[in-house]
Amino acid sequence: MNLKKAFTENDSIRLGLSASTWQEAVKLSVAPLIESGAITEEYYHAIIESTEEYGPYYVLMPGMAMPHARPEAGVKRDAFSLVTLTEPVTFSDGKEVSVLLALAATSSDIHTSVAIPQIVALFELENAIERLVACKTSEEVLAMVEESKNSPYLEGLDLES
Question: Which of 14, 27, 68, 95 is catalytic?
Fold first, then answer.
């Protein structure tokens, strides 16, 4: 599961979008994955339900969320999407988010061992949130993903598959 490959194959980078609620922002973040067939509509509803029950557990750092649910909730294949918002949305815990990186993983192992290190590598880049929000093209985002490949978090990972 390769971040760059998943973005390209699913045509799943959407920049400069607008959402008035966190639910709408989550919907925007999973829409490219529904369109590409990586997930079903059920996956969106599972994210909303678990957020309402457990809170926004996927807000990983100030400005960034990684909406996801269990693999059995409609994941057809491993995929990522990335959405930036022109204005941040506020989650129920008061945290504001302007970058959403949706994750669809067919297993918990992929989620933990392959997906998370790539996401950490991307978001540990200096000013990652601001830089991603400033991106105007998918190519600019993909260049940041490429830049993140030198991260120690990715040592020993096979990202070609």
Answer: 68
